[in-house]
Design a protein that fits this description.
It is built from 16 helices and 16 strands. The chain is of the alpha/beta class. The strands form four sheets. It has a seven-stranded parallel sheet, sandwiched between helices. Strands 9-10-8-11-12 form a five-stranded mixed sheet. A two-stranded antiparallel ribbon has the order 13-14. Strand 9, helix 12 and strand 10 form a beta-alpha-beta unit. The longest helix is centred in the N-terminal third of the chain and has 18 residues.
Length: 431
């Protein structure tokens, strides 16, 4: 990657490090601050969280207890940075407007905040690392387009499954392989009706020091659907069926399982996104094929499979740990790790987890009301399905049965939402 280690060393020696802002100091945000503290040539000038004490804690966990100023004043923050200090704040606007900051990392997980933060980055010419995949699958194409017009880079993050998968996908396409499937291992059993009050998940969340809602987002499959929608929208690969197959299989079986039915596999079509449940996690994979016998012989000799499909597998993804690399890619090389195309190919749709009543206000992803599934954008648009990113806070206009897909006409949405306005603009301009 362009001798990125050498470049960071040069930036450090020249006294011109990459300077970033982090918004969202949860589990992953804290990891990012700690990782940056061990790197040359990159500095985290400001950490923002709704509670500034959490932002301060992120610095403390990285081993930095000194020269940190807590403030929500841009003027005070500018003065502090100029005197060599760092900022803990509850104001995301400071992060996007600080003159020293070159790149902003959104680790909030809130689609609405993702929309607001990225628009600020566009106005103030800051590159954006979008760890907020929920926002990306909702309005990623228009955000990327606006960022490009502003001369800044919009990118998903290295280390998260979408970024890691897309890196392998780009490698495969560069070599001229046909991509049969791309996917990830799911790290929890699939329970599509899981909710944060269930004792087994509540206990596991406590042991892992996680918000139970965040754990349920993984358990009920929503996170997997969201991540693979991001991969779809960046590559054009589509789900083979609604919700994908999600077979139980191990790494050694991947190339066989993700083959066409006529070849003994599970697929109706090639060029798909999917996931597997087994020893694949925490790995990601791309299944490829070729019609060149010389290349086939080489792949077989190198234990990539016996054909007709072959496995490219990365046995890990280091979510948040790898994120600083994306920030450097953006600032130094003007490139993204991964980004959506100029239109959606897949949509994460909203499906009721339980019977819902008229007047009920929908809660957040990973809670009680609904889960995400994936379908093609064409189908979702034709059937008026509500994107998962717009669901939180929507008011039901009618009763909805358990397992029913929630559509736009079933809900009233908040017209004051920046996310909603950008989605409407995206639908009108980009289809």
């Amino acid at each position: 990657m362009y001798e990125i280690d050498r470049k960071l060393k040069e930036l450090s020696q020249a006294g011109t490090p990459v300077r970033i802002a982090l918004i969202g100091a949860g589990q992953m945000g804290k990891d990012i601050v700690s990782q940056i503290s061990k790197m040359e040539g990159i500095i985290c000038d400001i950490v923002v969280d709704v509670d500034s004490s959490i932002a301060l804690e992120a610095y403390h966990l990285s081993g930095n207890y000194d020269n940190i100023v807590t403030t929500d004043s841009l003027e005070e923050a500018e003065a502090a940075i100029n005197s060599g200090k760092k900022i803990a704040s509850s104001s995301y606007i400071i992060a996007t407007r600080l003159s020293s900051v070159q790149c902003v990392i959104d680790a909030t997980g809130s689609p609405e905040m993702g929309a607001r933060i990225t628009m600020e980055c566009i106005f103030y010419k800051k590159h954006i690392v979008m760890m907020n995949v929920e926002c990306d699958i909702t309005i990623g194409p228009i955000l990327r387009k606006l960022c490009e017009q502003a001369g800044i880079v919009y990118s998903l993050t290295a280390g998260d499954e979408p970024g890691s998968i897309i890196e392998i996908y780009r490698f495969a396409k560069a070599l001229g392989f046909e991509v049969i499937a791309a996917g990830k291992g799911k790290n929890n059993p699939l329970d599509i009706y899981a909710n944060p009050s269930m004792p087994e998940w509540k206990e596991k969340a406590e042991k892992r020091e996680m918000n139970p809602r965040m754990l349920i987002e993984f358990v009920d499959g929503s996170k997997t659907m969201i991540e693979m929608a991001a991969v779809s929208n960046a590559t054009g690969l589509l789900p083979d069926i609604r919700g994908m197959h999600g077979p139980k299989c191990n790494v050694k079986d991947l190339a066989k399982v993700f083959s066409l039915k006529s070849q003994g596999g599970i697929l109706e079509h090639t060029g798909v996104v999917d996931f597997g449940i087994g020893d694949i996690n925490p790995g990601v994979f791309v299944i490829v094929t070729t019609d060149n016998q010389r290349i086939i012989d080489g792949l077989v000799q190198r234990d990539m499979g016996t054909g007709p499909n072959y496995l490219l597998y990365r046995p890990y993804h280091l979510c948040s740990i790898e994120t600083p690399i994306t920030a450097v890619q953006e600032v130094v090389y003007g490139e993204s790790t991964a980004h959506p195309m100029d239109h959606l190919t897949s949509e994460c749709i909203t499906i009721a987890k339980k019977d819902l009543k008229k007047g009920e206000i929908l809660d957040a992803i990973g809670e009680y009301c609904y889960r995400a599934s994936i379908d093609s954008h064409e189908v979702a648009k034709r059937e008026n399905m509500l994107p998962i990113g717009l669901a939180k806070g929507a008011v039901l206009n009618c009763d909805v049965d358990k397992d029913e897909v929630i559509t736009y006409d079933m809900v009233s949405l908040d017209d004051n939402s920046v996310l909603l306005q950008l989605r409407r603009l995206q639908d009108q301009l980009l289809g």
